[in-house]
């Protein structure tokens, strides 16, 4: 089993991992039940799936995590729509870490590419790390 | 300058949180296990932060069209947890027409902010639908 990803193991500038994923019909159907006003045009996914893919990648790449981490802030930019069924590759890099008022802040840079290499989304996740 | 935009709302119930857990693969017990969550500092189940964040993308599309999403960006803080039974509404005001930025606030039914921040959309789409 991998060692727990504690605050001391984050190294600013280090690439933390890459994860490739696609959204299947089951998840899309769940989405449409959850957000009935957010329809899919059949060709491209609703924009919120950029957020979903980012979170799925986070859970795979930043693992195993100590319990109790807090998602404090999010920057996210959409560059291109995601095609239905398309595989997206998400990369995460530790941008910074800082102890601030006894809280362990970690910033994770995220970038995603489509199957043809086009930029899909990019952003920065700010977390208060539990341990 | 205040721009009247269509608000987007979502009522968060246990079914919604469970669905979002399946969509994201995030089954953290703080979101899915009422017994665990009750004993935690949160005192009960809270929704995933990004479950509400997604309303911002939906608001941009509803008000400015799908093309406005290409190049759209947001910068938000999660300020208060969302609980089962909360209705979250995204409201926004035009902040700066020159750089197409909007202040956005996602508030619960009590008018308390759960997410605060800004979003930007491409220049050609500042005028709402």
Quick overview:
The complex is a heterodimer of chains A (about 130) and B (about 130). Chain A is α+β, with helices and mostly antiparallel strands and about 130 residues long. Chain A has helices at about 25-35, 50-60, and strands at about 15-20, 70-80, 90-100, 105-115, 120-130.
Keywords:
heterodimer; A: 131 residues; alpha+beta; five-stranded antiparallel β-sheet; 2 helices; elongated; B: 129 residues; 4 helices; 29% helix
* Tally of separate helices of chain B: 4
Distance between the termini of chain A: 18 Å
CA-based gyration radius of chain A = 16 Å
Mean pLDDT of chain A, to the nearest integer, reads: 96
Shape of chain A: elongated
**Low-pLDDT residue spans of chain A:** none
Percentage of residues in DSSP E strands of chain B: 25-35%
**% residues in beta strands of chain A:** 35-45%
Would you give an account of this structure?
The complex is a heterodimer of chains A (131) and B (129). Chain A is built from 2 helices and 5 strands, in the order βααββββ. Chain A is α+β, with helices and mostly antiparallel strands and 131 residues long. In chain A, strands 1-3-4-5-2 form a 5-stranded antiparallel sheet, with helices on one face. Chain A is elongated and about 45 Å long. Helices cover 29% and strands 27% of the residues of chain B. Chain B is built from 4 helices and 5 strands, in the order βααααββββ. At the A-B interface, α1, α2 and β2 of A face α1, α4 and β2 of B.
Give the helix/strand layout.
The complex is a heterodimer of chains A (131) and B (129).
Chain A: E1 15-21, H1 25-34, H2 48-61, E2 70-78, E3 88-100, E4 103-113, E5 119-129
Chain B: E1 8-11, H1 14-24, H2 29-32, H3 34-39, H4 49-64, E2 73-78, E3 87-96, E4 101-107, E5 113-120
């Amino acid at each position: 089993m991998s060692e727990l990803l504690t605050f001391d193991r984050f190294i600013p500038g280090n690439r933390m991992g890459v994860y490739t994923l696609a959204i299947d019909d089951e998840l899309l159907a769940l989405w449409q039940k959850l957000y009935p006003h957010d329809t899919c045009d059949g060709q491209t996914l609703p924009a919120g799936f950029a957020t979903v893919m980012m979170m799925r990648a986070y859970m795979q790449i930043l693992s195993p995590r100590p319990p109790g981490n807090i998602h404090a802030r999010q920057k996210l930019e959409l560059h291109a729509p995601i095609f239905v069924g398309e595989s997206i590759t998400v990369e995460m890099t530790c941008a910074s870490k800082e102890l601030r008022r006894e809280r362990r802040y970690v910033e994770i840079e995220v970038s995603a590419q489509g199957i043809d290499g086009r930029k899909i989304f990019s952003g920065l996740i700010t977390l208060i790390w539990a341990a | 300058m205040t721009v009247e935009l269509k608000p987007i709302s979502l009522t968060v119930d246990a079914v919604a949180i469970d669905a979002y857990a399946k969509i994201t693969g995030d089954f953290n017990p703080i979101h899915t296990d009422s017994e665990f969550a009750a004993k935690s500092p949160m005192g009960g189940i809270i929704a995933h932060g990004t479950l509400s964040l997604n309303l911002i993308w939906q608001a941009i599309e509803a008000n400015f069209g799908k093309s406005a999403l290409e190049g759209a960006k947001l910068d938000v803080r999660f300020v208060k947890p969302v609980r089962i039974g909360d209705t979250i509404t995204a409201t926004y005001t035009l902040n700066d027409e020159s750089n197409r930025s909007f202040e956005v606030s996602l508030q619960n039914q009590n008018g308390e902010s759960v997410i605060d921040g800004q979003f930007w959309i491409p220049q050609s789409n500042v005028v709402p639908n």
